[in-house]
# Entry
Amino acid sequence: MTGNYGMGKSYVLSVFRELGAIVLDSDDIVGLLLQDRWVIFKLRKLLGKTVEKEDGTLDKSEIAKIIFNNSELRKQLEALLHPLVFARVEAYLKKIKGSRRLAIIEVPLLFEGGYQGRFNRTITVFTTQKAAIERLMRAGVSRSNAMKRLKAQLPPRTKKKLADYVIDNNGTKQSTRWQVKEIYEKLIKEMG
# Structure
């Protein structure tokens, strides 16, 4: 499952989880990786000493500031982290193989990275840019940073064309919930 920043993927994931799907959020995996000493060392080497706080942890806001102002560094960061994320996803999927439960993996840069071939089906969550910016600003992201983040991803209309399933998250939560339930039921039928 994919969707741009602020499109409401977290809510959609929570509904899939409620319905009984196994849910993996790649942002959570990245969060764990950013605590790994080797990853911290590599990021400090790539992005500079300012990304590490005095306590040895990473300053995620500093990292975001750097990578959303430098597309080359953003690509290098992605080249470092994405293989590590997919290694963890694949290890987990191997562990649950045979459980006969639907697994939904959230990957924000699914199409940008050309990763869609790793999955049986793709789902895109979308909303208007205005709604996305409002969500991001409520989460503490400035308007200019929200715009930079959104511009770093493929436009939602492109992702909608590439996806097997599309969830329009412009309406009510109930409307989104209904769409998720419908897709969940279709995917369960496909599993046979």
Q: What stands out?
A: The first strand starts at residue 22 and ends at 25. The mean pLDDT is 93. The chain is about 55% helix and 10% strand. Residues 71-96 form the longest helix (26 residues).
